[in-house]
Amino acid sequence: MVLRRLAVELLQDGSTQDAVAERLHVSRSSIKRWIKAFRGGGVAALKPKKPKPAARRLSEDQCHQLCDILVAGPLAAGFDSDLWTCPRIAEVVRRKFGIAYHPDHLGRILHALGFS
Fold first, then answer.
1. Which helix (DSSP H) or strand (DSSP E) does residue 70 occupy?
2. DSSP characters for 41-108?
3. Exposed e or buried b for every residue in 84-95, given b needs 16+ CB within 10 A?
4. Can you give the pTM of this predicted structure?
5. How many Cβ atoms from other residues are within 10 Å of residue 54's Cβ?
């Protein structure tokens, strides 16, 4: 936050955005973003944003449950044919556990669980 406050102070003292960016070794787009934030919310808006929480993942117990579902087969899960696809498994995971995975990523998870 110190760098951001310094940038704003330099701009308020009459320095150009290019000069401030060069002096602080940051991009001009960062300077623009910081000054916009400052104008919209003051010094408090210059604080770094907290990282977003990690997306929810299947627990170990849920992985075991998913394995049981897969072994039981798609027909038992309510599908009209006996073929598992990653999009179908993604739907099962979403319905059963409330977790949305992209089918391609789910394929990697399944591979790690021993499925081909």
1. helix 60-72
2. H-GGGGSPPPPPPPPP---HHHHHHHHHHHHH-TTTTT-SSS---HHHHHHHHHHHH-----HHHHHH
3. bebebbbbbbee
4. 0.53
5. 6
The CA distance from 76 to 52, in Å, is 37
How far is Cα 4 from Cα 10, in angstroms, rounded to an integer?
Answer: 10
Lookup: tokens for 115: 């499925």
Q: What sign does the CA torsion over 56, 58, 61, 62 have?
A: positive
Tens digit of each residue's pLDDT, the chain (116 residues)? 889 999 999 999 999 999 999 999 999 999 999 999 999 999 999 998 887 766 668 999 999 999 999 999 999 999 999 999 999 999 999 999 999 999 988 888 898 889 88
DSSP one-letter code for 23: H
Q: Which one, of 83, 64, 26, 80, lies nearest residue 8 by Cα?
A: 26
